[in-house]
Specification:
Helices cover about 40% and strands about 25% of the residues. By secondary structure, it is an alpha/beta fold. It has one domain: Rossmann fold (3-Layer(aba) Sandwich). α4 links the parallel β4 (about 120-125) and β5. α1 packs parallel to α3 (about 85-95). The protein is globular. The two termini are about 30 Å apart. Bound molecules: S-adenosylmethionine. The site of S-adenosylmethionine has 19 residues, from α1 and α2.
């Protein structure tokens, strides 16, 4: 895992928003063109992990891809993202979907406006590796999770992916620019963050090999 700088909160927020707001209008085309198979694997890997009675929080929902996919399977889902532009795209898709159990909010993953224990499940897909403070996002997600609830993360682990995958990532960076923050997680470090946040790992599964994408399931003790 690469060392993270420690910017002021305002600076950190601005830096996190800047890259994602810039890519927001093309984000879904980007996913469709290059990451469709990976996203299919992520969705398949998450199948059966939510319940129809669940109230779910999707941290760093982006354009709402995962939230809108999960919505028909749960009671309600809230998707939060720090980028207004990402949420604007998500809102447009929500309107077109006709779904009535989804709420999108512009919020910071490190400081959520929800009471302790509000959610049955927290999900976070393709985001922890892009965050300035992934541990803080996990701790905050844990705070709003009810006792016995589950945190399901799907995260790129470039620390386990090898030089060729890293080279391919560099090509994306040349094409689209560089997010200000990036962690080259190893899966064991990723699991360690959930344990550090006080969660018990109940599952860890590789959803994609090149690059490595790991789904970690972690439960809040009852
Ligand atoms: C690669 S996108 C993934 C979006 C979505 N989860 C998906 O799988 O399509 C990463 C997202 O993390 C969001 N993000 C980064 N830092 C954040 C923070 N501190 N709080 C909330 N969202 C954040 C970005 O705005 C961006 O939408």
């Amino acid at each position: 895992m690469s060392a993270q700088p420690t910017p002021t909160d305002e600076r950190r927020k601005r830096d996190e928003v800047m890259f994602w707001s810039k890519v927001a209008p093309q984000y879904d085309d980007w996913v469709s063109a290059a990451f469709m198979e990976q996203y299919k694997a992520f969705k398949a890997g998450m199948e059966g992990l939510v319940d129809e009675n669940d109230l779910v929080l999707d941290i760093a929902t982006g354009t709402g891809n995962i939230a809108l996919h999960i919505a028909p399977k749960v009671s309600a889902i809230v998707g939060i993202d720090i980028s207004e532009d990402m949420i604007a795209v998500a809102e447009g898709k929500l309107e077109a979907s006709g779904l009535e159990n989804v709420t999108f909010l512009v919020e910071d993953a490190y400081n959520l406006p929800f009471a302790d224990g509000s959610f049955d499940r927290v999900v976070c897909v393709n985001a922890l590796q892009t965050m300035a403070r992934p541990l803080q996002a996990i701790k905050e997600g844990t705070r709003v999770l009810r006792d016995g609830g589950e945190f399901i993360s799907v995260t790129y682990a470039y620390g386990d992916s090898g030089a060729i995958e890293y080279l391919k990532l560099s090509r994306w960076v040349i094409k689209y620019g560089r997010p200000k923050y990036w962690s080259n997680f190893k899966t064991k470090d990723l699991r360690g963050l959930f344990e550090e946040a006080g969660l018990e790992i109940v599952g860890s599964k590789r959803l994609w090999d090149k690059p490595v994408v790991e789904m970690v399931r972690a439960r809040k003790p009852s």
